[in-house]
Structure formats: structure tokens, C-alpha cells
Automatic annotation (TrEMBL):
Residue ranges annotated for the RING-type domain, each copy included: 325-364
Protein name: E3 ubiquitin-protein ligase XBAT34
Record keywords, A-Z: ANK repeat, Metal-binding, Repeat, Zinc, Zinc-finger
Database matches in Pfam families: Ank_2, zf-C3HC4_3
Chain positions of ANK repeats: 39-72, 73-105
SMART domains named in the record: ANK, RING
Species this protein is from: Cardamine amara subsp. amara
GO terms of molecular function: zinc ion binding
InterPro entries: Ankyrin_rpt, Ankyrin_rpt-contain_sf, Znf_RING, Znf_RING/FYVE/PHD
């Protein structure tokens, strides 16, 4: 037992010495890869903390090191690489399956650590790995009445990404957030919009230079002091101004409807037609079925994570306990709306809504049938 521990300690020392061949030899002889020193570091954590040890980190990963093995303060190798601004090591760990959503004991993800440190290269490396959409777009800014006269003077290039946010509760699904950067040199976005609390006005077919408008409903005048209407002078007229946050975006190249469509789909939880993020691939393979009833529970669980911004959720009390009817806020949620598949309320409330032809309380789609669910 002592000999095995000695070999593991020696392997850790070889990591510090940047001796790749020594590491391979010790591993071949049976040395473990998860030994922890007094500072709470595994060999991979040590290698992920220094730029000159990137090749060593690659060797350890290929030999079977746990890429999500945590040490002191619950920090994984990815946390340590992000904390040091080591872009190549971050990309290495991500390419080998490191989980970018792991929280340390301070409830920080590697992305949040990199952002706090100002490492824009690491921030964008992680975001590009997890995003549903990324790319340059044009942001239109107001006053909007000038748009018809000189639209080219009212737009600026911005870097836009749509990323899932880490859930503090591992049983809760991801929620999507839109982030807008003035440049790729910025570690912190100039604007963040929670898509699960926003509404989306999609492009109009008749627009020569199509654009989309996103409104952050969490800043609505109905709910926040910041949203109260104020009055500003415009000549001799007084105009009411709504301080609700709005974002108007167009494709980077005028007339590029494909990019704009990709962006709109990503807002709804559908990634660009490229390699989708790993955390989405599993869910996509399990939800492709012709039976609309097969996935009603999974649809319900993912409701708050990827509800399309075009859906108005302001009438739904999202603070209710999971499984509670969103209409009477008393009975359990036990029935599904067909064909949309939302498990939104109790059987009596949903039948009443169906009879009144009010539509699904979640997405407003027509309800053809209400079916009670029975849990085993």
C-alpha cells in the first residue's frame, strides 16, 4: 500500500518536473492519477494551473485522469485553468469532456471565474463550446425615428452569443441567456438578457433589411421600479418613454436571412446547424418521436429552460412549487394539453380553459384534448 502511494507521489512530482515520459512509465507500472497533495491538487489540477504544463495535462487526460475531479474549494481542473487564463488548457479540457457548468464551493463556474479575472480569451473559448449561437450581428440603437432616414448610421457591430446558464439546483434544467459584447476583447458583455423572461418579435417578410426585436419582460413597468414611465421633453411636446430594455438585431450582412433565422431558432432552444453542444445532444436524441404523448413529462421539465421568447409567460406564476397547477395555484399539475404537450394544470382547470377556447396557459396554442396523467 505504501509502495502504491509512493508511486503516486512520484508521478505528481514528475508532473511538476514536466516529465511526460516519466509520467507514462509510472502509469504503466500502475501508479494512480488522482493522488491529492496538501494543497488539494491532483496531478491534472497541477498541470492545468501552469501554461508550460499543457502537454503534461494532455498526457494525463489521455491516460485517464478525471477531467472533473475536484480539489480544494471544489474546483476542477477547468476552474484552475480559467483562473490562470490558460486558453489552450481550457480548450484541451473541454475537448475531453470537462463539464463547464460545475460550481465550486463559492458557486462559481469556470466561465464566471474567467470573466471576473478579465480573461476575454477564456470567456469566449468556453462560450463558443457551450453556445447555441455565436456570431457578429448588427445592433440598431435609438431614437428609432431616424432609422428610416439613415439606418446605416444607427447600427453597430456586436458579438452575440446565446448560452445556457448553470443551474444552482442540479435537478433544474438550464435556462438560456443572450449576451452582447461590444468586442471580442471584452470579458464582460455590455448586455445580458434572460431569454426565459423575454419576448421575441421575429423578422417581417416584407422588410428589406430584416431584424428582430427582443424585449426583456423582467424589466417590465408592471414589475420593477426601473420600468416606471418617465417623461422627457422633445421641443414643446412631452413623450412618454418606456424604460423597458429592448434589443434590435439584424444579420451581420444585410439580407443574410439564414443567420437571422439561426439566431431566432437558437433563442427558442435550437442550436445552429453545426455541432450542437454536448449537453443538448443527449436530450435531442431522446425527444425525436412521432408520439406526441411520449415526451410530455420531459417537455414540462424543460419548460422554464427553453421556453421560446415569442411565448408570453408573464401570466404564469413561475415561483410555484414544481408540479403545481399554474391556473388555480392549488391542485397538482396532472393533465396534459394536446397537441402542444404542456403539463400545465389540474384536469378541471384545463378542461374549463378548453371549453372556453382560451388556449394552453403556457403557449396559447389551441387545445384539442385534455388528458389526465397517471404516475406510477
Amino acid at each position: 500500500m505504501r509502495q502504491q502511494q509512493s508511486e503516486e507521489e512520484l508521478l505528481f512530482q514528475q508532473v511538476s518536473n514536466n516529465d511526460v515520459e516519466g509520467i507514462k512509465s509510472l502509469r504503466h507500472d500502475g501508479a494512480g492519477l488522482e493522488w491529492v497533495d496538501k494543497e488539494g491538487r491532483t496531478p491534472l489540477i497541477l498541470a492545468s494551473s501552469k501554461a508550460e504544463l499543457c502537454d503534461v495535462a494532455k498526457t494525463l487526460v489521455e491516460l485517464g485522469s478525471n477531467v472533473d475531479g475536484s480539489g480544494f474549494n471544489g474546483e476542477t481542473p477547468l476552474h484552475h485553468a480559467a483562473n490562470k487564463g490558460l486558453e489552450n488548457t481550457v480548450k484541451l479540457l473541454l475537448s475531453h469532456g470537462a463539464n463547464p457548468f460545475v460550481l465550486n464551493d463559492d458557486s462559481q463556474t469556470p466561465l464566471e471565474i474567467a470573466r471576473a479575472k478579465g480573461y476575454s480569451n477564456v470567456v469566449h473559448a468556453i462560450e463558443s463550446h457551450i453556445c447555441l449561437f455565436s456570431g457578429w450581428m448588427r445592433e440598431f440603437y435609438f431614437p428609432s425615428f431616424l432609422e428610416f432616414f439613415a439606418p446605416q448610421l444607427l447600427s453597430r457591430r456586436v458579438w452575440v452569443v446565446i448560452v445556457p446558464m448553470a443551474s444552482r439546483n442540479p435537478t433544474k434544467p438550464f435556462k438560456l441567456e443572450l449576451r452582447v459584447y461590444a468586442s471580442l476583447q471584452d470579458a464582460n458583455p455590455k448586455m445580458e438578457m434572460p431569454l426565459w423572461k423575454s419576448s421575441l418579435e421575429e423578422p417581417k417578410s416584407y422588410q428589406s433589411d430584416a431584424s428582430v426585436m427582443i424585449v426583456d419582460n423582467s424589466k417590465s413597468p408592471k414589475h420593477t421600479r426601473a420600468g416606471r414611465r418617465s417623461f422627457v421633453s422633445q421641443g414643446r411636446r412631452w413623450v412618454r418613454v418606456d424604460t423597458q430594455i429592448r434589443l434590435k438585431l439584424a444579420a451581420a450582412t444585410e439580407g443574410d436571412t439564414q443567420q437571422l433565422n439561426w439566431f431566432c431558432e437558437a433563442c427558442k432552444g435550437n442550436p445552429q446547424p453545426m455541432n450542437p453542444p454536448m449537453f443538448l445532444q443527449a436530450s435531442q436524441t431522446t425527444t425525436t418521436t412521432s408520439d406526441p404523448m411520449a415526451n410530455v413529462e420531459s417537455i414540462s421539465q424543460e419548460l422554464t429552460a427553453s421556453a421560446p421568447p415569442s411565448v408570453d409567460l408573464s401570466h404564469v406564476n413561475m415561483s410555484l412549487p414544481s408540479g403545481t397547477c399554474v391556473i388555480c395555484e392549488d391542485a397538482s399539475s396532472e393533465a396534459v394539453c394536446v397537441p402542444c404537450g404542456h403539463v400545465a394544470g389540474c384536469i378541471s382547470c384545463l378542461k374549463e380553459i378548453k371549453d372556453k377556447k382560451l388556449g394552453c396557459p403556457i403557449c396559447r396554442a389551441n387545445i384539442h384534448q385534455v388528458i389526465k396523467l397517471y404516475h406510477v
